């Protein structure tokens, strides 16, 4: 684990922001940033479960529609569980890509990485292939599981219109029309179901839990 080069999410975020500034119209990026800033102000208590709490069991479909049951995975390994928004979110792609880069160290620490979003299994497969992810990406239609762990919010109407104007079919990523999303957060669940690590960087979805924090918590 000590020999692994761990990328900084915040450093990656700086590069991503530069790329987005070149790719998106300034007014569109401003709409998204304003929505993120507003979420940071509104949502100050994100986590529904914290360190020491017992994680509820759940069963969800993975990218190839195979059912994955949390407590079955826990029979063999601890679980690093992370909630994200969707394939269309550049910050989610950055975070999941970085978590993929530390996957060998996660496995060496006796843990299994699982990511959850409300996307359809097809979109879960899309994000797996796009980022060459080698961990389970599960579909939580209606945020049934997510709302037990984190705060759920309805995506901003102005941000959704801006996405549509940019050519993104937001509703096509999901099986319902609720437009609800989980605020990103990451948990470590021990084999007895106890949560040993729980963190969100707040309502501002541009920020994510650093890979180094996950590895340090696993130690």
- How many beta-strand segments? 9
Helix content: 25-40%
Strand content: 15-25%
How many domain units? 1
Overall geometry comes to globular
Radius of gyration: 17 Å
Structural class: alpha/beta
The first-level CATH class is given as: Alpha Beta
State the CATH architecture: 3-Layer(aba) Sandwich
Count of alpha/pi helices = 9
Biggest beta-sheet profile: 5 strands, mixed
**CATH H-level superfamily title:** Glutaredoxin
Give, in spatial order, the strands making up the sheet with the most strands: 5-4-3-8-9
Mean pLDDT: 95
CATH fold field value = Glutaredoxin
Walk me through this protein's architecture.
With 219 residues, the protein is of the alpha/beta class. It has one domain: Glutaredoxin (3-Layer(aba) Sandwich), CATH 3.40.30. It is 39% helix and 18% strand. It has nine helices and nine strands. A five-stranded mixed beta sheet has the order 5-4-3-8-9. Strands 1-2 form a two-stranded antiparallel sheet. A two-stranded antiparallel sheet has the order 6-7. Strand 8 and strand 9 form a beta hairpin. Helix 1 packs antiparallel against helix 4 and helix 2 runs antiparallel to helix 8. The chain is globular and about 50 Å long. The model has no long low-confidence stretch (mean pLDDT 95).
Which helices and strands appear, and what pairs or packs with what?
Layout: H1 9-23, H2 26-42, E1 59-61, E2 67-69, H3 70-73, E3 78-83, H4 90-101, H5 103-108, E4 111-117, H6 121-131, E5 136-139, H7 146-149, E6 152-154, H8 157-165, E7 180-182, E8 185-189, E9 195-199, H9 211-218
Parallel strand pairs: 3-4, 4-5
Antiparallel strand pairs: 1-2, 3-8, 6-7, 8-9
Helix pairs in contact: 1-4, 2-8
């Amino acid at each position: 684990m000590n020999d692994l080069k761990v990328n900084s999410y915040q450093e990656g975020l700086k590069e991503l922001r530069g790329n987005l500034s070149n790719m998106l119209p300034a007014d569109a990026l401003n709409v998204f940033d304003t929505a993120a800033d507003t979420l940071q102000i509104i949502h100050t208590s994100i986590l529904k479960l914290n360190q020491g709490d017992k994680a509820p069991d759940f069963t969800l479909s993975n990218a190839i529609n195979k059912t994955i049951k949390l407590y079955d995975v826990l029979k063999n390994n601890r679980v690093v569980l992370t909630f994200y928004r969707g394939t269309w979110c550049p910050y989610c792609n950055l975070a999941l890509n970085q978590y993929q880069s530390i996957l060998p160290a996660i496995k060496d620490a006796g843990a299994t990485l699982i990511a959850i979003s409300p996307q359809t299994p097809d979109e879960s497969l899309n994000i797996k292939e796009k980022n060459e992810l080698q961990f389970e990406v599960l579909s939580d239609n209606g945020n049934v599981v997510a709302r037990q762990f984190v705060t759920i919010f309805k995506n901003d109407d102005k941000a959704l219109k801006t996405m549509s104007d940019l050519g993104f079919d937001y509703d096509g990523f999901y099986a319902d029309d609720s437009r609800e999303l989980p605020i990103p957060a990451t948990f470590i669940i021990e084999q007895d179901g106890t949560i040993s690590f729980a963190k969100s960087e707040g309502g501002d979805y541009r920020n994510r839990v650093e890979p180094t924090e996950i590895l340090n918590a696993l130690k």
